[in-house]
Amino acid sequence: MEHRLALELASTIRHDGDGGVTDDLATAHGTTRWIRAQAGLLADHLPAGGIAADEGLRSEIIELRSAVRALFARAVSPAPPSAADARRLMSAAQALTHLNTVAAREPVVPHLDWPPDGAPAARLLSAESDPKVRLVTALARAAIDFLSGPQREQLRACAAPRCVRYFVKSHGRQEWCKPSCGNRARAARHYRRQRMATDGSPPPS
To answer: Which of the chain's termini has less CB crowding within 10 Å, N or C?
Structure first.
Protein backbone atom coordinates (compact mmCIF):
# COMPACT_ATOMS: atom_id res chain seq x y z
CA MET A 1 0.00 0.00 0.00
CA GLU A 2 1.29 3.44 -0.91
CA HIS A 3 0.74 4.89 2.56
CA ARG A 4 3.63 2.62 3.64
CA LEU A 5 5.79 5.26 2.00
CA ALA A 6 5.20 7.49 5.03
CA LEU A 7 6.82 4.96 7.36
CA GLU A 8 9.59 4.27 4.87
CA LEU A 9 10.35 7.99 4.65
CA ALA A 10 10.37 8.43 8.43
CA SER A 11 12.61 5.37 8.76
CA THR A 12 15.40 6.88 6.67
CA ILE A 13 16.65 8.09 10.07
CA ARG A 14 17.58 4.90 11.90
CA HIS A 15 19.88 3.23 14.41
CA ASP A 16 23.14 2.30 12.71
CA GLY A 17 23.81 -0.83 14.78
CA ASP A 18 26.79 0.71 16.57
CA GLY A 19 25.05 2.99 19.04
CA GLY A 20 24.59 5.91 16.68
CA VAL A 21 22.06 7.20 14.18
CA THR A 22 22.44 7.12 10.41
CA ASP A 23 20.60 9.06 7.71
CA ASP A 24 19.86 7.26 4.45
CA LEU A 25 19.30 10.66 2.80
CA ALA A 26 22.62 12.15 3.88
CA THR A 27 23.84 12.36 0.27
CA ALA A 28 22.26 12.64 -3.16
CA HIS A 29 23.61 9.16 -3.95
CA GLY A 30 22.02 7.71 -0.81
CA THR A 31 18.74 9.45 -1.66
CA THR A 32 18.81 7.95 -5.16
CA ARG A 33 19.42 4.50 -3.65
CA TRP A 34 16.47 4.97 -1.27
CA ILE A 35 14.16 6.10 -4.10
CA ARG A 36 15.10 3.02 -6.11
CA ALA A 37 14.40 0.80 -3.10
CA GLN A 38 10.83 2.18 -3.06
CA ALA A 39 10.31 1.46 -6.78
CA GLY A 40 7.40 -0.88 -6.14
CA LEU A 41 5.51 1.69 -4.07
CA LEU A 42 6.35 4.54 -6.46
CA ALA A 43 5.72 2.70 -9.71
CA ASP A 44 2.72 4.85 -10.63
CA HIS A 45 4.59 8.11 -10.03
CA LEU A 46 8.04 7.68 -11.60
CA PRO A 47 9.30 7.05 -15.13
CA ALA A 48 10.29 3.48 -15.96
CA GLY A 49 13.98 4.16 -15.44
CA GLY A 50 13.46 5.93 -12.13
CA ILE A 51 15.16 9.20 -11.31
CA ALA A 52 18.48 10.25 -9.83
CA ALA A 53 18.34 12.66 -6.93
CA ASP A 54 20.25 15.92 -7.03
CA GLU A 55 20.84 18.20 -4.04
CA GLY A 56 17.63 20.12 -4.70
CA LEU A 57 15.47 17.00 -4.63
CA ARG A 58 17.34 15.63 -1.61
CA SER A 59 16.65 18.86 0.31
CA GLU A 60 12.96 18.74 -0.61
CA ILE A 61 12.60 15.15 0.59
CA ILE A 62 14.46 15.91 3.84
CA GLU A 63 12.22 18.88 4.57
CA LEU A 64 9.16 16.75 3.89
CA ARG A 65 10.55 14.05 6.18
CA SER A 66 10.94 16.66 8.93
CA ALA A 67 7.25 17.52 8.57
CA VAL A 68 6.21 13.86 8.59
CA ARG A 69 8.29 13.05 11.66
CA ALA A 70 6.87 16.10 13.48
CA LEU A 71 3.36 14.84 12.77
CA PHE A 72 4.34 11.31 13.80
CA ALA A 73 5.51 12.81 17.10
CA ARG A 74 2.11 14.44 17.47
CA ALA A 75 0.39 11.15 16.63
CA VAL A 76 2.19 9.18 19.38
CA SER A 77 1.74 11.89 22.04
CA PRO A 78 1.54 11.85 25.06
CA ALA A 79 4.11 9.06 24.68
CA PRO A 80 7.58 10.40 23.88
CA PRO A 81 8.59 10.81 20.23
CA SER A 82 11.62 9.26 18.60
CA ALA A 83 14.78 10.43 20.32
CA ALA A 84 16.45 11.16 16.98
CA ASP A 85 14.88 14.58 16.57
CA ALA A 86 12.79 15.12 19.71
CA ARG A 87 14.63 18.37 20.53
CA ARG A 88 14.40 19.93 17.09
CA LEU A 89 10.97 19.03 15.80
CA MET A 90 9.16 21.31 13.39
CA SER A 91 5.99 22.69 14.99
CA ALA A 92 2.83 20.72 14.20
CA ALA A 93 1.23 23.76 12.54
CA GLN A 94 4.27 24.31 10.33
CA ALA A 95 4.43 20.60 9.52
CA LEU A 96 0.76 20.52 8.48
CA THR A 97 1.18 23.56 6.26
CA HIS A 98 4.27 22.13 4.60
CA LEU A 99 2.74 18.69 4.06
CA ASN A 100 -0.43 20.10 2.51
CA THR A 101 1.53 22.53 0.33
CA VAL A 102 3.72 19.76 -1.09
CA ALA A 103 0.72 17.47 -1.64
CA ALA A 104 -0.98 20.19 -3.70
CA ARG A 105 1.94 20.68 -6.11
CA GLU A 106 0.87 17.95 -8.54
CA PRO A 107 -2.33 18.71 -10.49
CA VAL A 108 -4.50 15.68 -11.19
CA VAL A 109 -7.46 15.24 -13.50
CA PRO A 110 -10.29 12.68 -13.37
CA HIS A 111 -10.28 10.07 -16.11
CA LEU A 112 -13.17 7.73 -16.90
CA ASP A 113 -12.54 4.17 -18.10
CA TRP A 114 -15.54 2.23 -19.44
CA PRO A 115 -14.68 -1.04 -21.19
CA PRO A 116 -17.32 -2.56 -23.52
CA ASP A 117 -17.81 -5.56 -21.25
CA GLY A 118 -17.41 -3.91 -17.85
CA ALA A 119 -18.53 -1.20 -15.50
CA PRO A 120 -17.26 2.37 -15.69
CA ALA A 121 -14.50 3.33 -13.27
CA ALA A 122 -12.89 6.66 -12.50
CA ARG A 123 -9.25 7.28 -11.67
CA LEU A 124 -7.07 10.31 -11.22
CA LEU A 125 -4.28 10.97 -13.71
CA SER A 126 -1.36 13.29 -13.16
CA ALA A 127 -1.09 16.42 -15.23
CA GLU A 128 2.47 17.03 -13.99
CA SER A 129 5.42 16.36 -16.32
CA ASP A 130 8.27 16.82 -13.81
CA PRO A 131 9.03 13.43 -12.20
CA LYS A 132 10.67 15.10 -9.19
CA VAL A 133 7.48 16.99 -8.39
CA ARG A 134 5.51 13.78 -8.82
CA LEU A 135 7.85 12.01 -6.41
CA VAL A 136 7.66 14.47 -3.52
CA THR A 137 3.92 14.86 -4.04
CA ALA A 138 3.46 11.08 -3.85
CA LEU A 139 5.39 11.01 -0.58
CA ALA A 140 3.31 13.84 0.87
CA ARG A 141 0.02 12.27 -0.16
CA ALA A 142 1.11 8.92 1.27
CA ALA A 143 1.73 10.66 4.60
CA ILE A 144 -1.71 12.29 4.45
CA ASP A 145 -3.31 8.90 3.75
CA PHE A 146 -1.45 7.33 6.65
CA LEU A 147 -2.10 10.10 9.18
CA SER A 148 -5.80 10.31 8.29
CA GLY A 149 -6.29 6.54 8.37
CA PRO A 150 -6.79 3.93 11.10
CA GLN A 151 -3.12 2.94 11.35
CA ARG A 152 -2.27 6.32 12.88
CA GLU A 153 -3.74 5.11 16.19
CA GLN A 154 -1.31 2.18 16.20
CA LEU A 155 1.77 4.29 15.46
CA ARG A 156 4.47 4.05 18.13
CA ALA A 157 8.04 5.22 18.70
CA CYS A 158 10.19 2.19 19.48
CA ALA A 159 11.03 2.09 23.19
CA ALA A 160 14.25 0.09 22.82
CA PRO A 161 17.56 1.71 23.82
CA ARG A 162 19.14 3.66 20.95
CA CYS A 163 16.34 2.83 18.47
CA VAL A 164 14.83 5.86 16.74
CA ARG A 165 12.25 4.18 14.51
CA TYR A 166 8.51 4.67 14.35
CA PHE A 167 6.44 1.55 13.70
CA VAL A 168 2.82 0.41 13.46
CA LYS A 169 1.84 -1.76 16.39
CA SER A 170 0.57 -5.11 15.09
CA HIS A 171 -0.52 -6.76 18.36
CA GLY A 172 -1.70 -5.71 21.78
CA ARG A 173 1.49 -5.59 23.86
CA GLN A 174 4.05 -4.75 21.19
CA GLU A 175 6.60 -2.21 22.46
CA TRP A 176 9.38 -2.55 19.91
CA CYS A 177 9.70 -2.28 16.14
CA LYS A 178 11.45 -5.65 15.75
CA PRO A 179 12.57 -8.64 17.88
CA SER A 180 16.20 -7.48 18.09
CA CYS A 181 15.03 -4.25 19.72
CA GLY A 182 12.99 -6.27 22.21
CA ASN A 183 16.07 -8.37 23.04
CA ARG A 184 18.15 -5.22 23.53
CA ALA A 185 15.49 -3.64 25.76
CA ARG A 186 15.21 -6.76 27.94
CA ALA A 187 19.00 -7.01 28.23
CA ALA A 188 19.22 -3.36 29.29
CA ARG A 189 16.44 -3.90 31.85
CA HIS A 190 18.23 -6.97 33.24
CA TYR A 191 21.51 -5.05 33.45
CA ARG A 192 19.84 -2.21 35.37
CA ARG A 193 18.29 -4.66 37.83
CA GLN A 194 21.62 -6.41 38.40
CA ARG A 195 23.45 -3.13 38.88
CA MET A 196 20.90 -1.86 41.39
CA ALA A 197 21.10 -5.14 43.28
CA THR A 198 24.91 -4.92 43.36
CA ASP A 199 24.74 -1.33 44.61
CA GLY A 200 22.43 -2.40 47.43
CA SER A 201 19.37 -0.68 46.02
CA PRO A 202 16.12 -2.57 45.52
CA PRO A 203 15.47 -3.56 41.90
CA PRO A 204 12.73 -1.63 40.14
CA SER A 205 9.27 -3.16 40.31
So the answer is: C
